[in-house]
Amino acid sequence: MTSLVHRLWYGKGRPLAFLAPLAWLFRTVAEVRRRKAWEALAQPLPVPVVVVGNITAGGTGKSPLTAWLVSRTQAAGWRPVILSRGYGGQSSRYPLLVTADTDAAQAGDEPVMLARATGCPVVVDPQRRRGAGYALDNQLGNLLICDDGLQHYRLPRDVELAVFDGNRGLGNGAVIPVGPLREPVERLASVDFVVVNNGADLSAPARLDSFAGVEHPDIHSMTLTPSRLSNLNTGESRDLECLRGQSVRAVAGIGHPQRFFDTLSGLGAVVTEAPFPDHHRFKPGDLNADSGEWVVMTAKDAVKCQGFAPDNAWVLSVEARLPEAFAMAVLARIRACSDALTLNRR
Fold first, then answer.
1. Angle of CA points 47, 51, 57, to nearest 5°
2. CA-to-CA distance for 340 and 308, rounded, in angstroms?
3. 91-126: buried (b, 16+ CB within 10 Å) or exposed (e) per residue?
4. How crowded is the C-beta side of 211, counted as CA atoms within 13 Å?
5. Is the pLDDT of residue 340 over 80?
6. Which of 95, 100, 168, 271 is disulfide-compatible with 116, CB 3.0–4.6 A?
7. Distance CA 297, CA 199 (A)
8. Which CATH architecture has domain 3-224+322-345?
9. pLDDT above 80 for 2
10. CA-based nearest residue to 260, from 109, 111, 86, 61
């Protein structure tokens, strides 16, 4: 998302209000697509399907939440499989089973990042129902977690999680192109959980009664904690304390790069900001740095820079943290869905 669009959507007022007819058309088409897709849905899939997504454009923290869900469900005995569209990838065949060694240019940056972070199977297919069938036919797991699939209505789902950036919220509350909403706020009435990404703000309350004027019975706070600093070429790990006072060129091709820059500043680094468009295809010149300066990037960007990154390129990884009550509620909902599917098959 460009800085201009960010200002127009997340600033005061609605400077693009003259585009309201297009926003009405966008909303109408989205509602028609959703209704037709739901009407055309076949029988539910034989395993629970959890969809992580958002109703706003731009980065909100869906992938860290997906990785957290994988970890918690694995600990509870599930064998999760991640489904992804593979945005930015250009594979010659689908479905595509992604591993830690898959080329990000083929699969997309987020699927490769998730495969490396979680170690669980990741299936990429723009037709996520087809990808789900592939995962089940090959017995890859017994739980499907769809990363960024809230508007992909052809995929049946049992549990929906809508994620928001805590700082940006709903923006000006308008639908694209007047504002950042992919769907109207009323869509949240049908999701199971709302998750608010408050970044590194550990003081944020674990449970919220409302968010940006949105009332929902299950609103929970998520924080992103820096967990590891590693050299992109050698894999060497260093304590995060070594960033204090260090000059860094912060490279970020993600939906909301300012959050990454603020995290580095919070760790004491002297930051030169280098934002790029989301899913940017990096080239060597993008990673140039001054003498004595480190290049520091996100794990999502790192998967696209191996092979040409300089020796001073470092990766800052983050982990999602959510309240235990939320984890228990999600696991209970998944178990209830699984039990219901089992009964329906009898």
1. 165
2. 50
3. beeebbbbeeebebebbbbbbbbbbbbbebbbbbbe
4. 30
5. yes
6. 100
7. 16
8. 3-Layer(aba) Sandwich (3.40)
9. no
10. 61
In tens, the pLDDT along 20-39 reads 899 889 888 888 877 766 66
- Give the torsion through C-alpha atoms of 168, 173, 177, 181, to 10 deg: 70
Percent of the chain with pLDDT over 70: 96
Tell me phi and psi for residue 319, to 5 degrees: -125, 140
Q: What is the DSSP string of 216-253?
A: EEEEEEEEEEEEEEEETTT--EE-GGGGTT-EEEEEE-
- Which residues partner with 194 through β-bridges? 162, 219
Give the start-to-end residue ranges of the domains of the chain. 3-224+322-345, 226-318
Element (H, E) at 131: helix 128-137
At 122, is the secondary structure helix, strand, or coil? strand
Q: Helix 109-118 vs helix 62-75: angle between axes, to the nearest 10 degrees?
A: 30
Question: Which tokens is 188 given?
Answer: 């949240």
| pTM as predicted | 0.92
At which residue do the structure tokens 């089940």 appear?
Answer: 136
Ranges 97-101, 111-115, 175-179, 208-212: which has the least confidence: 208-212
Helices (H), strands (E): how many in the chain? Answer: 9, 14
pLDDT of 1 higher than 60? no
Over residues 252-263, the mean pLDDT reads 90
Radius of gyration in angstroms for the set of CA atoms belonging to the chain, rounded to a whole number: 20
pLDDT for residue 205 is more than 80: no
Q: What are phi and psi of 54, to 5 degrees?
A: -150, 165
DSSP 8-state class, residue 82? E
Q: Rounded to the nearest 10 degrees, how much is the dihedral formed by the CA atoms of 297, 298, 304, 307?
A: 50
pLDDT tens profile 71-103: 999 999 999 999 999 888 888 899 999 999 999
Q: Find out whether 166 and 196 touch, Cβ atoms under 8 Å.
A: yes
Distance CA 262, CA 202 (A): 14
Do residues 300 and 294 touch, judged by C-beta distance below 8 A? no
